[in-house]
Amino acid sequence: MINFAVMPISIMDAAWVREVLHRGAVAYGFFGVAILAGMVLGSLTGSVWEKAWGLTRTLIAGIAVTGLMLLGMAVLPRFFPNLLFLLLAGLGIGAVNAVLSTHIILNTAAPLRGRVAGALMTLTTMATPPGAALVGWASVPLGLPWLFRLSGILIFLLSLGFIGIPSSSAMEDSQAPAFPEA
């Protein structure tokens, strides 16, 4: 769902820079750098977040921050604040990707890890085209600011779906691996 909802950043960021921020190619390049730098930083620090907050809180925080930053872009459509919002959104995305991917792989029996990783990559990739199609269509009747607002709200609401899921330490204590290591 997040890949589906984050499409305005991936598909409409060039239009956002040109039509909303009234900037050119250099500004668009900085947009890419900002989100990528945030994703790298989030990937490198995700385990620190998890140690401090636990798995569930890290997922909620990372997804919520991503949604709020996308919403922030629409509420404050200015170039430098938007760069900061993208950096922070990337931070959330990077942390969630690193922490969640690690947990999925480590909690999968060794003989199944490749298949599980392949299935997850396929499912997340399959969410992208419908999101891109919907974003392209919805940008005309909604306009870019409302498209970004709605996407940010949807991503934030998705973070709430993790409330009540046990933390990683509770899961590790209660669940022994179902399969022996090969």
Q: What's the gist of this structure?
A:
The protein is mostly helical and 182 residues long. It is built from eight helices and no strands.
Low-confidence stretches: 169-182
Largest sheet: none
Total count of helical runs of at least 4 residues? 8
Chain-averaged pLDDT = 87
Shape: globular
Structural class: mainly alpha
What is the distance, rounded to the nearest whole angstrom, between the alpha carbons of the first and last residues? Answer: 33 Å
What's the helix-strand series? Answer: HHHHHHHH
Q: Proportion of β residues? A: under 5%
Radius of gyration: 18 Å
Share of helix, binned: over 70%
Number of strands: 0
Key phrases:
182 residues, disordered C terminus, mainly alpha, 8 helices
Notes on the structure:
- Helix content is 82%, strand content 0%.
- The two termini are 33 Å apart.
- α3 (25-53) crosses α5 (79-106) and α6 packs antiparallel against α7.
- The chain is mostly helical.
- The protein has 8 helices and no strands.
- The relative contact order is 0.20.
Write the layout of secondary structure elements.
Blueprint: H1 2-5, H2 7-20, H3 25-53, H4 55-75, H5 79-106, H6 113-142, H7 144-159, H8 168-174
